[in-house]
Amino acid sequence: MFRTSRGALRRAAVVAAAAVAALTACQPEDLPADDVPASAVPGASATASPSASQPAAPGGRRSLVDAAEAGGLRKHTGDGAVGDVPVDPGEMRDGMRLVVSHFAAPDGGDPVLFEGVDNVPEDTNKRREHLFRGMLEYIEWDPELGQPQARPVADPGPLGGSVECLMASLAENGQVVCGWADESTAAVALFPDSTLDEAGKLFVAMRGDLER
């Protein structure tokens, strides 16, 4: 049910190659120009979050930010940083940007995996569904257990759009996947030990630092 097509996997491999190149300080010209658009910059190579004095507009087209902190969690660097693109982001076209990061509380704990894209040319809800499926594949969710149903987060925050979370666990707490979709961006995050309510609130808080 959650299998990714061979074409999507090939595209994910191309994006993964760009991410690895960024992490090893390769220049864009070191990669095949026909395969990796220069605008598809992986999150690991981006700059820190803009100042809180630059709030995001409540509507319209926005972009993702590779923030140093998100929702009070700090981005992992060094050994804890994301070394590749774990979830197929879908087709990356000219002008799109990919951000992939691990975030964790300052006192430690299992990291939250975040992956998102901006300047999405198609329906962002469909792109979010693609990311949801990719995240379920990443955690090796057993399709025989059924397809987890995403539930809307009651308060999506000042950025609006649609924010949903699904419980990828048979217990009331466990792995939770949350995703947002608005006019131009779609993103998901994996919360390894949480509840739907806790993960939803944290995801909304993180979004305030990851989207501008």
Automatic annotation (TrEMBL):
Signal peptide: 1-27
Chain positions covered by the region annotation Disordered: 30-62
Swiss-Prot/TrEMBL keywords: Signal
Protein name: Lipoprotein
Biased composition (Low complexity): 37-60
